[in-house]
């Protein structure tokens, strides 16, 4: 081969190599462009989902005022006992709330789940208030939750009797007086007097034959008799009414109590002559505590999204407790999970594969949501660690973490603002939403109990700010929202005291 041929071949080979390099460069450039386009499309889809959530979860003040008006309307329907009214507005038969003058030894039994508490308190009147209190918590054996009524109440009465036997010298029962008990029973009950009520249905994992339709106070009283325990049930209450009683004992200006925990409910003090369905003699106090059961509030004004609708449809009680499903601790984390699942499916928020754990119902609890929401680190490392621990995502992008934070913010803010609208509705029903005719305003206190309000600080701060916005600065300056711990326990004992058989009748 001649020199020219060799050179020619080299030129051809060089050209081919250059062409190959050129093709590779073009191919790499195309891949990069496709990746950029795919990433841009992914971001566009994520932005579209977030924009839709922002719109659906929006709660402008005008909407909240409309929800409050709807709450007042449903309260009035419930007080008239209209058929199909979502708010039952149950008459608690509590017409005397604690005043601070109560004296003596009183017990409480708080039954609301798989544990119950027994409490005793020595009250010393206005000067000494609560002199001493003690309590014990008891777990209910699982087999008793599905056994017979007699077995369950005998177990409870036996534990109560053991607790009474440990009564020390700091507690004093005057000679000739019977011990009295406040019974917090946090299951659906049709109350017929301050110390009687028939069970409507068991919930929270209980399934006991022979109790539905029976008077739960009579069941407990018979069990105490079988244990040789001389004790009278002076008051049957639910936890919200107990919280109101405990709140009123601590502060005489408390007019309503709200539970914001795993579930939600509210109770307030109503004028007895404003209860059309009340058929008995008007109480001497002129007032009656109403247990609203407000978790079942529903209105077409509530901003239900596709996530709320699917949650409700897949729940154990579709069509019920709509308000509760939008504002309470049982459901906020689940709503966040559903939005993140949509982002994972539509916008590959956590990578090309949807994390399998993200498909699991209720895997994201509200306390975890709260912990993520309160992450103040610059790179949201704590939020990222939660996503790894809970959803099994080994590595999340900073963008995914900030989107998750924003979703938590949207869900918590909506829940808090809707809860504030409900409280505003109660204050409006009571005429506490405006100045008096002389432009003054009496101090008004809202007592709130529950882990959601107590521990989820961004939720509680948003609720309080929203209530101020709805009331206006001038009226809001005289409305106090305060934490009321352990209402269902101490409150029941206080109601036993204020409805004692030995109480002086005014």
TrEMBL record:
The chain crosses the membrane at residues 6-28. Residues 256-497 form the Hexokinase C-terminal domain. Pfam families: Hexokinase_1 (PF00349), Hexokinase_2 (PF03727). GO terms for molecular function: ATP binding; D-glucose binding; fructokinase activity; glucokinase activity. Residues 50-249 form the Hexokinase N-terminal domain. SUPFAM superfamilies: Actin-like ATPase domain. Pathway: Carbohydrate metabolism; hexose metabolism; Carbohydrate degradation; glycolysis; D-glyceraldehyde 3-phosphate and glycerone phosphate from D-glucose: step 1/4. CDD domains: ASKHA_NBD_HK_plant (cd24020). Keywords: ATP-binding, Glycolysis, Kinase, Membrane, Nucleotide-binding, Transferase, Transmembrane, Transmembrane helix. It comes from Sorghum bicolor. Belongs to the hexokinase family. It comes from the Eukaryota. One of its GO terms (biological process) is glucose 6-phosphate metabolic process. InterPro entries: ATPase_NBD, Hexokinase, Hexokinase_BS, Hexokinase_C, Hexokinase_N. This is Phosphotransferase. One of its GO terms (cellular component) is cytosol. It catalyses: a D-hexose + ATP = a D-hexose 6-phosphate + ADP + H(+); D-fructose + ATP = D-fructose 6-phosphate + ADP + H(+); D-glucose + ATP = D-glucose 6-phosphate + ADP + H(+). Its EC number is 2.7.1.-.
């Amino acid at each position: 081969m001649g020199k020219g041929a060799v050179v020619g071949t080299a030129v051809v080979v060089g050209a081919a190599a250059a062409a190959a390099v050129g093709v590779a460069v073009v191919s790499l450039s195309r891949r990069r462009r496709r990746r950029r386009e795919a990433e841009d499309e992914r971001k566009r889809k994520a932005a579209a989902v977030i924009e839709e959530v922002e719109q659906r979860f929006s709660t402008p003040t005008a909407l909240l005022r409309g929800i409050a008006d709807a709450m007042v309307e449903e309260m009035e329907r419930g007080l008239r006992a209209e058929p199909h009214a979502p708010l039952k507005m149950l008459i608690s038969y509590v017409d005397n709330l604690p005043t601070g003058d109560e004296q003596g030894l009183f017990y409480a039994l708080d039954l609301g789940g798989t544990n119950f508490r027994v409490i005793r308190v020595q009250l010393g009147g206005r000067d000494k208030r609560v002199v001493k209190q003690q309590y014990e918590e008891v777990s209910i054996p699982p087999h008793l939750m599905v056994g017979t009524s007699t077995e369950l109440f005998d177990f409870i009465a036996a534990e109560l009797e053991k607790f009474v036997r440990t009564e020390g010298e700091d507690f004093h029962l005057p000679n000739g007086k019977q011990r009295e008990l406040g019974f917090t029973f946090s299951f659906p009950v049709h109350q017929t007097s301050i110390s009687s009520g028939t069970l409507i249905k068991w919930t929270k994992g209980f399934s006991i034959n022979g109790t539905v339709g029976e008077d739960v106070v009579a069941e407990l009283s018979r069990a105490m008799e079988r244990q040789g325990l001389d004790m009278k049930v002076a008051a049957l209450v639910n936890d919200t009414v107990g919280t109101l009683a405990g709140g009123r004992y601590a502060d005489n200006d408390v007019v309503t109590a709200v539970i914001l925990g795993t579930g939600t409910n509210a109770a307030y003090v109503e004028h007895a002559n404003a209860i059309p369905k009340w058929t008995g003699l008007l109480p001497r106090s002129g007032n009656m505590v109403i247990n609203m059961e407000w978790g079942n509030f529903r209105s077409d004004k509530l901003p239900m999204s596709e996530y709320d609708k699917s949650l409700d449809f897949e729940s154990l009680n579709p069509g019920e407790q709509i308000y509760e499903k939008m504002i309470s601790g049982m459901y906020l984390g689940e709503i966040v999970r559903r939005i993140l699942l949509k982002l994972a499916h539509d916008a590959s928020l956590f990578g090309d594969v949807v994390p399998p754990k993200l498909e699991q119902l209720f895997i994201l609890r509200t306390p975890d949501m709260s912990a993520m929401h309160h992450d103040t680190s610059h790179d949201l490392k704590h939020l990222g660690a939660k996503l790894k621990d809970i959803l099994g995502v080994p590595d999340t992008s900073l963008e995914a973490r900030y989107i998750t934070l924003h979703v938590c913010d949207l869900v918590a803010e909506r829940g808090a603002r809707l809860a504030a609208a409900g409280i505003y509705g109660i204050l409006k029903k009571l005429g506490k939403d405006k100045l008096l005719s002389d432009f003054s305003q009496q101090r008004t206190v809202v007592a709130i109990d529950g882990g959601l309000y107590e521990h989820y600080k961004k939720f509680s701060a948003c609720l309080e700010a929203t209530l101020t916005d709805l009331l206006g600065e001038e009226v809001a300056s005289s409305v106090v929202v305060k934490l009321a711990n352990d209402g269902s326990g101490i409150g029941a004992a206080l109601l036993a005291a204020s409805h004692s058989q030995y109480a002086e009748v005014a």
